[in-house]
Design goal:
Blueprint lengths: L1 H7 L8 H18 L10 H20 L5 H25 L12
Helix pairs in contact: 2-4, 3-4
């Protein structure tokens, strides 16, 4: 009971935005995971790139803020991974990452 009370009253506990902000941000990760089943033509390259930049900036924030917010850091590392994968799917669908024509060996 004492450990739960300590967590409840900690600087990153559920009485603070250091807890509820990351909890809400896990929705971005869940949405990205759900979108993996959609065809690449439905992915917005601009929005996915914006989400990559957003998560990269907030990873730095989560690391620099005192006390360090590991829950937020984990959330944005996960989101960055999912969004970069989605961005690669979009780029392949648009033909940006297609293999170059290989020379025919004689």
């Amino acid at each position: 009971m004492a450990s739960f009370r300590a967590f409840l009253n900690s600087p990153v506990g559920p009485k603070t935005t250091h807890f509820w902000g990351p909890v809400a941000n896990w929705g971005f990760v869940a949405a990205g995971l759900a979108d993996m089943k959609k065809p690449p033509e439905m992915i917005s390259g601009n929005m996915t790139a914006a989400m990559c930049i957003y998560s990269a900036l907030f990873m730095r924030f989560a690391w620099m803020v005192q006390p360090r917010n590991y829950l937020l850091l984990t959330c944005h590392v996960s989101n960055e991974t999912v969004q970069l994968y989605q961005l690669s799917r979009w780029a392949k669908g648009q033909g940006y990452l297609s293999e170059k024509d290989k020379p025919v060996s004689q």
